[in-house]
Amino acid sequence: MNQPIDSMEIDNLMNKVDEMCKKLSLLDFLSEKINKFQSTVSTLVSNVENVTKRVGEMEHSLEFLGAKYEAGRKEDADMKTDISDIRSYNKEIGGNVKRLTTDFKNDLRERHLDLQTRSMRENLIFSGIQESSDNEENEETGEILKQFMTKELKLSNPIEFVRAHRFGRADKKPRPIVCRFKTFNDRELVRKNANVLKGTNYGISEQFPIEVNDRRKVLWPYFKEAKEQHKKAHFKRDRLYIDGKEFIPHDRNKHNMETDNNPANTRYERQGARPKYFPRRGPQKKNNGNSE
Fold first, then answer.
1. Any idea what DSSP says for residue 195?
2. Count of domains in the chain?
3. Beta strand pairing call for 177-181 and 203-206
């Protein structure tokens, strides 16, 4: 026969069951907490992975930007170099244009001077011939010149000319006469006969533009000195030739006679030309108007 269960044991057993239920409830709570924690950790891990991915992308972007920056810096340096080269090239072009402009102006001036000289090729200037009146007409001037050529130049037949007229301001001295002959040979015939005027107040000279006259004035003292030294000297427009060589003054303040045979002038031969210009001022002596 079964013995009756003690009520106290039952109570104890119930208490144990209650405690076990409480512990199970706690375990359920803890399990829920752990699950939530795991979910949170998973979220954090996912976020960290996302952040890591973003950081990687940013690093890649930074590397790309860095490469772009370096490329930009190189391009900027290249552009600065190109700009510097362009400036140098423009400066060189500017210098070349300036030189070409100067050369062109000089060449144009020389061409114009040459045309002026050619237009005066048949002209001679007569000085010292008295004027018939203060209002002398060109016709009278022509007749006076014809008489002068017959009487003073001892020409049996007066040379024909195109026209003759006086120029310059009226002064105590008679104004010079410029005469244009029909041909250059006629002009030369008169000019070469001017030696008969030596010792008189009359003079015959070729007509040149002012600039050519200025250049000849610079060379005139050297021409006279060469003549005094019994050297062959003659002018050809604005050039002086001594003993068959073109003379170029080395020191314009001293009358040092130098010809193309001297070392001082060889540099002009190397340049292939004489100096481009002569100064307007230099050693000058008064020209009495006699023939050169």
1. G
2. 2
3. unpaired
Q: Where are the alpha helices (DSSP H) in the chain?
A: 7-119, 138-151, 184-192, 210-228, 266-271
Q: What is the DSSP string of 256-270?
A: ----TTSGGGHHHHH
Do 199 and 189 form a contact (C-beta atoms < 8 A)?
no
Give the end of a domain, one of 207, 237, 260.
Answer: 207
CA distance 238 to 211: 9
> Does residue 194 lie within any of the structural domains?
yes
**Residue 240 included in any domain:** yes
Distance CA 211, CA 89 (A): 37
- Of 5-19, 174-188, 212-226, least confident by mean pLDDT is 5-19
Domain membership flag for residue 2: no
Residue 144: give the domain boundaries. 121-207
Of the candidates 180, 207, 234, which is a domain's last residue?
A: 207
Single out the residue of 160, 158, 148 nearest to residue 204, CA to CA: 148
Tell me, yes or no, whether 77 lies in a domain.
no
CA distances (Å), origin 240, targets 119, 194, 280: 21, 20, 16
- Whether residues 216 and 202 share a domain: the answer is no
205 to 89, 126, 210: CA distances (angstroms): 52, 7, 14
CA quadruple 187, 189, 191, 196: dihedral positive or negative? Answer: negative
Span of 222-231, 242-251, 280-289 with lowest mean pLDDT: 280-289
The pTM for the full model equals: 0.54
| Residue 239, SS3 per DSSP | strand
| CA end-to-end span of the chain | 181
pLDDT tens readout for residues 91-105: 999 999 999 999 989
What does the pLDDT read at residue 5?
Answer: 58
